[in-house]
Amino acid sequence: MLQWLPILEKVQPHHRRQVTKQDTGTFKPIILHGHERAITQIKYNTDGDLLLSCSKDPTPNIWYSITGERLGTFDGHNGAVWSIDINWDSTKVVTGAADNTARLWDPSNGKMLSAIETKTAVRSCSFSYSGKMVLYTTDKSLGKTCEINIIDLNQQLQNGHVVSGAAQSTILNIPVPTSKVSSAIWGPLDQSIITGHENGDIIQWDIRTGKKMLLVQEHKDVINDLQYSKDELMFITASKDHTAKLFDVSTMKPLKVYKTERPVNSGAISPIADHVIVAGGQEAMDVTTTSARQGKFDARFFHLIFEEEFGRIKDHFGPINSVAFHPDGKSYSSGGEDGYVRTHTFDPAYFEFDFEY
Amino acid sequence: MTNLRFLNILDLPPTGIEIKGNTKIVTEFKYNDEGKKIKVVRHYRIEKRKVSKAVAERKLWKKYGQARNDPPGPNPSNTIGGEEIFMQFLTNKEEDNKAEESGLAKLKGRGLVLCRICKEDHWTTQCPYKDKFSDLAELRPEVKTKKLDWLWMSATPSHNSQVEEKIKAGKYVPPSMRDGASRRGGESMTSSRTRDETATIRVTNLSEDVQDSDLQELFRPFGQISRIYLAKDKVTAQSKVSLSPIELTRFSLRWETKELNKEKDISSLIVQLKVADDLHHLLYNFFHKGIES
Fold first, then answer.
1. CA angle B200, A289, A341 (to 5 degrees)
2. Where are the WD repeats (chain A) (predicted)?
3. Which end of chain B has less neighbouring CB within 10 Å, N or C?
4. B13 vs chain A: nearest CA distance in angstroms?
C-alpha cells in the first residue's frame, strides 16, 4: 500500500472529479442501546462478528454485529470504563476503568478472569498482536505519575486478583512524568508500543529497553485515538486540535492530514477502500451552549490519499467518541456521547462512489 | 389507575411469533402511555450466512450478564432498528467552491491572508482554533477601538502620565481617571446604547414573515451589517410590524442618503426606512468635508 502512495500524489488535484450515480446513500442503522452513559470506545473482533462497547457507565457490552443482538455484559467494574480490547482469537477481553482496575474477561460466558489493581484510573488497554501480552496505561492524578505497563497474560491469569505494585506478571513499567498518555497501541511485531499524549506528542517506545525510540510533535492537542490500517503499516491519529493525521508506523512520519472544524475524537481507516472516517464534534461540555447543527456531530468520510472530504453521515445527536470499521469494510459502527452505538451497513451507492483521476 | 393497568397487562394476548418463509413476524400487545391497547408488529428477515467455524461457535454462546434472560434474537429494548439516514456525498465540491469564493481564493496562498489567531493562511473568521481562542483579549479591544475611532474621530484619548505610572505600579485608579474615561465608548450600558443608535437604521412596516436573512440581503450592498434585531412577537414568534433596528458598522461612502430613504419593497409591503438622526449628521459631514476613510 505504501509503495504506490507517492505515485498517486503526483496527480494534479484539478484533474480529479468525483463520480457517483446518486447524490445520497441510504442507510438503515441498527441502534444498540445498552449503555446509560456516553460511549468511550467501541471495537470489533478480528472476524468482525462481535462488537464490544464500553462507556462511562460501569458495564461494558458485547454484541453480535450482524443482528445487533446483545450477547452479554461484563459486570464488575465500579467506574467509567475508558477502554476495551479483545484478543485476536476472541477468547479474552480486557477493559480498563476509572475504578483503578484493568480486568480480564472470558467473552464466552462473561466471567471475570483476573483483575489488576492500579494506583490511578486505567486510560487505555490493548492486547498485543500475539495475544500474550497486555498493555495498559494509567492516568496522572492524586500526585501519582502516569505509567505504561505491560503484563504477561498467562502469568496474570495464574495470579488472579493482583494488587498494584506486587504484580509479578509485569514485564515492563515505564513511568511517564511528562504529559499523560491518552491513547496507546502496540507497535509492529509486538516490539514497540506507540502512545499518544495529552500535549499532542506521539511516542514510540522500545519494549525491550523501555526507552523512547521516536517522538513526533505533529499535533497541538490531546491525541484521543490511535487506530491501525488493516495491514498495520499506517495508523491514524485523532486529536482535539481538529485534525486527524495518517502516520507511517515504522518511521512515524506524517503522511496525510484530514482537517475538520471541530475536535476529532476518533478516526478509522477502511480495510477495503481508500477511505477514512473522521468523527468527533463539539466537546461534550460545550454542547449545551450550541445547537446540534453547529456541533457538527457528523461522521466524515475522507479520501485516504487526496485528504478530501467526500461524504458525511449525520445521525448522532452528540459528539461521536469512537468509530470502527467492520473488518470486512462493508459496515461501520460509531459510539457517541449520546450513549448509543450505531451500526451502519453501507449501501451500493457508497461502493459505487469513486474519485476519477 | 396503576393497579388497573397491571391487571390489564395480564389480559393482553400473548406475544405471537410466526415464521413465514424467511420472515419472522413478532406480534406484541402493550399499552401506550394513555392506557390504550396497541399492537406492535415487528418484521425480521431471516438470513442464512456461511461463516467460519469460530464465528459459528461463538453464535452458540449463551447470553450472559444483563442479557442473561433475553430470548434468542435481538431484544427490542436494546437493539432498535433506526430510521433511514442519508449519506451526503459532497460531489464536485471543488467546482462549487470555485464559483463561490473565486475572489477570496485568489488571495489565498499568496500570503496576503493571514489569520490573526494562528498566523496561518486563512481568514480569522474561518480559523479552526477560533472557538478555542475566542477569549483572546488582544482581539476584541482592537476591533472595538477601530470602530470607535471611526465614529468619534473628534474624541481624543487623554493620556495622563501620572495615571499611567499608577497603572504600571498596580495601584488603584478610579474609573474616572482611567484611560478612556473621556471617551464615550466603553463597557457601560449607556455609552453602548448611544453607539448603537448612531449607526442604526430602523426599518418599519415590515411584513410579518420577514426573516433576518431578508434584511441581510437587502442591506448588504450598503455596508457591513454588524447586528440585526428583528422585533418579534413573543407569542407568535413572528416579526412585529414595528421597529427593527439594523446596525451597520461601516458604510460605503458612495452611499447616497437619498437612496436610503427610498421606499423598499419586501414581501409586497412598503417598508419605511429611517436613519438615526446622529448618523444623518455624521454622514452629512462626510459628504461635505470630503473625508475618505
1. 145
2. 32-73, 74-115, 216-257, 313-342
3. N
4. 25
Residue A86 grid coordinates: 479483545
Determine the Cα–Cα distance for residues A311 and A352; give it in Å rounded to an integer. Answer: 13
pLDDT tens digits along B130-185: 666 555 444 444 444 444 444 333 333 445 566 666 666 677 777 777 666 665 55
DSSP for residue B61:
P
Q: ∠ CA A178-A258-B94 to the nearest 5 degrees? A: 160
Share of chain A above pLDDT 90, in %: 36
Total-model pTM: 0.64
Highest mean pLDDT among A9-13, B14-18, B198-202: B14-18
CA distance linking residue B276 with residue B201, whole number of Å: 6
Cα separation, B291 vs B293, whole angstroms: 6
Distance in angstroms (rounded) separating the CA atoms of residues A235 and A231: 10
In chain B the first and final C-alpha atoms are separated, in Å, by 76
Find out whether B30 and B38 touch, Cβ atoms under 8 Å. Answer: yes
- Report the first-to-last Cα separation within chain A, whole angstroms: 18
CB pair distance less than 8 Å for B94 and A13: yes
